[in-house]
Amino acid sequence: ETERLAAAAKAKDHPLIADAHRLAHKLVNSNRLPLPVSSYPRNFMFGWAARTFAISPRDRVAYLLMPKAGSSSVRASLGNDYGVPPRKGNPTAKGSLRDENRFEAYAPNATFGWQAEYYKFSFFTDPAAHFVASICEANKLKCAAAVRTQNLRVDGIIRHIERRGRHVAAAVRGNYSGDLDAHFAPQLLLLQAAGSAGLKLDFLARFGDASWNALRLDMVARGFRPPSRLPHQRARGYSKLTNNVFAAMQPEVRREVCGFVLEEYDAFEMPVGEDNVCWAERRGNAAAAGAPTRPAGTAAGAL
């Protein structure tokens, strides 16, 4: 109890914790999908990640799965610290949780009363980098090797990314009737889907060491056992790959992709500075509307 009270005193005025509480409320707890769920591709909303919690009933901890936003690291922590194992017989399959460690909001018999007793959290990452990484992941493109060697060879993947980018842009507007992998879904859309399904979060922040430490402090302050240090993070280098991919896109495709990417930056309250891949589109949109191209005091935001 002494440790909890000390943590509560520290957490009270912690800016990252305050922001994480506010974003959770704004983007999930009081948010909804702009269109009926049936308007979106089925796997966007019913894929392995969409509206699904990985849970530890023993420790009353629940993580809202978010592909390509630190989910491998978080899942490793759930296994190491809370004993949340994968499904027996298929231990390496992504998203393969045992039934007792998985809550799917769209299941016919889903009930939500348990949420009040759990600490529920999730993370997001840079929207532009997430877009590139998600397509690389779902289509087995050799992006990891490109990041590791910095031999980007954009031409080998750019046309595929452009095609998928147009599909995602159409799907966000409810104008795509094909099938799309859940990895492709913008993070904001998955959070809105969670809110629409009745899921709640206590903590939502950009993934990283600082936010992970803030999560741990907040959990102690609320009387929950915190996880240990962050197990690992995705290798750095996606920012350069993302810059190269967006620069190589045809202008009309980049405008379409930046349309939903910029919406995410705004929702996550992340600045869009001159070195951001969608800065030109933001500047063009502002100029067309007769608004300043850069609000006073807004810092340039790198990926």
Question: Can you offer a commentary on this structure?
Answer:
The protein has a five-stranded mixed sheet with strand order 3-1-2-4-5. The model is unreliable at 291-303 (pLDDT under 50). Helix 1 crosses helix 9. A hairpin with a 4-residue loop joins strand 1 (52-56) and strand 2 (61-64). It is globular, with a radius of gyration of 19 Å. The protein is 47% helix and 7% strand. It has 303 residues and is α/β, with parallel strands linked by helices.
Cα radius of gyration in angstroms: 19 Å
The overall pLDDT, averaged over residues, is 84
Helical fraction equals 40-55%
User: DSSP helix count?
Assistant: 12
Q: Give the H and E element order.
A: HHHEEHEEHHHHEHHHH
Protein structure class: alpha/beta
Q: End-to-end distance, in Å? A: 40 Å
Instruction: Characterize the overall form.
Output: globular
Low-confidence sequence ranges: 291-303
Instruction: Bin the strand percentage.
Output: 5-15%
| Strand arrangement in the largest pleated sheet | 3-1-2-4-5
Number of strands: 5
Reported for the largest beta sheet, the result is: 5 strands, mixed
